[in-house]
Amino acid sequence: xxxxxxxxxxxxxxxxxxxxxxxxxxxxxxxxxxxxxxxxxxxxxxxxxxxxxxxxxxxxxxxxxxxxxxxxxxxxxxxxxxxxxxxxxxxxxxxxxxxxxxxxxxxxxxxxxxxxxxxxxxxxxxxxxxxxxxxxxxxxxxxxxxxxxxxxxxxxxxxxxxxxxxxxxxxxxxxxxxxxxxxxxxxxxxxxxxxxxxxxxxxxxxxxxxxxxxxxxxxxxxxxxxxxxxxxxxxxxxxxxxxxxxxxxxxxxxxxxxxxxxxxxxxxxxxxxxxxxxxxxxxxxxxxxxxxxxxxxxxxxxxxxxxxxxxxxxxxxxxxxxxxxxxxxxxxxxxxxxxxxxxxx
Length: 345
Known about the structure:
DNA polymerase, domain 1; disordered N terminus; 41% helix; TIM Barrel
């Protein structure tokens, strides 16, 4: 059967999913539009036209009343009403300084795919990032200890590195950087083989367990991690959750540690402090971000995206960076991929 060439409805459904993700809508709602897009993409043109004419689109698996209406409107050459409403309420524009910083970002150093707890394949994340104007993204799926997030064993990470190499041949000059969000263990060591971490382009180190550890012990833990030469970025340093609901459930207080010691270590060892752009994290808090600026730290403004639409959250981090006096030249992902962690001259 001849496959349909109906970019209109497929792209409309994917655009809606993207905007819903960016707005932090529930996963089931996003999935409904992505599933419908996949179903429509697999239809022949004759069948698509017939089902629209007969009103039987919603009889197909993965297509409901709302998504069928989107398809019908798009095939008719209209911008679907659902999409128009979303685009009319996208949010407020960034102020001038934050917009300039956002445009200066060349990539994103903290993203997840369906290899761990992300919702989309590597290719979809990469193609969305490229469409947003990124030159690169770092693929930083979780490490083995985080079993709830399907953390990557050493063998799975090796396979992922090979998959990324093949994908980069197709997507060049866009580049997917090999990476990991490696768990910081209780003693500050890292949850992956050192020899394998050495092969990666980007290592983001984050604490995901025992976040209520004693202040002194947590300080030692973080200092040990950021002083490790294999670590490039300290991820969401306080671990806080400031927005209830979503994928992490309830609120979570900040971990307690000595920020001056931790940020001094970051500055001394060239480890960037992440400005995490997820709406429920917005980590570090502004008072700590200002301390990191005073300590002379480098920064990485990241989305921590677990779905394609979340890749466009970088503006959240840019706004916070500008308000806290972060200099654009101190943000490592304003640099080209090959110069990400080069010492500043």
